[in-house]
Automatic annotation (TrEMBL):
Protein name: Glycosyltransferase
GO MF assignments: glycosyltransferase activity
Transmembrane segments: 224-244
SUPFAM superfamilies per UniProt: Nucleotide-diphospho-sugar transferases
Keywords noted in UniProt: Cell membrane, Glycosyltransferase, Membrane, Transferase, Transmembrane, Transmembrane helix
Pfam families per UniProt: Glycos_transf_2
Superkingdom: Bacteria
Residue ranges of domain Glycosyltransferase 2-like in the record: 5-162
Gene3D superfamilies: Spore Coat Polysaccharide Biosynthesis Protein SpsA, Chain A
Length: 255
């Protein structure tokens, strides 16, 4: 069976990380390793990870957890560090505030078993404790179609590729990830889309018909209209070549 490493970049994720670990224990089959790459958390994130590492010794069927300390709090850089120590053939990049369906790794294996597919991701459903953000989730879904049609029609859309984003849990083969150069260390935003534009040389980018759930914390912080306007604004500016460093100024981190 093809091995899979789940890589989780973290910075101050104490509010979500314990729940994420609980849900990861429900995966069947389990990943071969969990690699958490922390970018210098100042809350209880490291303590939560260390507790999980200690607990794994009592769980015979639980995969090993590795904690990597990153000198830079930048998701692209952190995920690249995780890939450097990963030993599996397949990679799955998971945000700390996103939960997977229990058969997610089976879906990943079946998808990447097709040699014509280079990478994939899930359908992201954005929700909080009391509500589901249906409109925003729907827009995020159709964006994977219209973004490549408008901005990269020949490279992406007409090849059957989809432009996916981090909340959709990107997965790919480790060797092809390395061959395309991985994530750009200097990108503070849109790093997944940038990587997919390069890995598409190896095959299609597929959005599988399964749902992952992501936190709605940005909508809670910014409000519905501002959040969705920023999502669209950032996407359009990136599509026409606007600097990622300038885009990041519009898109603050929310924890």
């Amino acid at each position: 069976m093809t091995s899979i490493s789940i890589i989780i970049p973290t910075v101050n994720e104490e509010r979500t990380l314990a729940r994420t670990f609980r849900q990861l224990r429900q995966l069947y089959p389990m990943p071969d390793e969990l690699i958490v790459v922390d970018g210098g958390s100042t809350d209880q994130t490291i303590s939560i990870i260390q507790q999980q590492i200690q607990q794994q010794t009592a769980l015979a069927d639980y995969p090993p957890i590795r904690l990597i300390q990153s000198p830079l709090a930048r998701r692209s850089y952190q995920m690249n560090l995780g890939v450097q120590v990963a030993t599996s053939e397949y990679l799955c990049f998971l945000h700390a505030d996103t939960s997977l369906p229990d058969d997610a790794l089976l879906v990943i294996r079946e998808t990447l078993s097709q040699s014509t597919i280079a990478a994939g991701g899930f359908i992201s459903l954005m929700r909080g404790p009391l509500r589901t953000r249906w409109i925003t989730s729907f827009h995020n879904f159709i964006k994977t179609y219209y973004a490549p049609l408008f901005f990269r029609p020949y490279l992406f859309f007409f090849k059957g590729a989809r432009l996916l984003f981090g909340d959709q849990v990107i997965f790919c083969r480790r060797q092809q990830f390395l061959d395309c150069g991985g994530y750009s260390d200097d990108l503070p935003i849109m790093e997944e889309a940038d990587m997919l534009l390069r890995i598409v040389q190896f095959g299609r980018i597929r959005q599988v018909n399964r749902v992952v759930e992501s936190s709605d914390r940005r909508l809670v912080k910014w409000g519905f209209w501002r959040a969705n306007a920023l999502f669209l604004y950032v996407g359009v500016l990136w599509g026409v070549g606007y600097s990622a460093e300038k885009l990041k100024q519009l898109y603050e981190d929310i924890r």
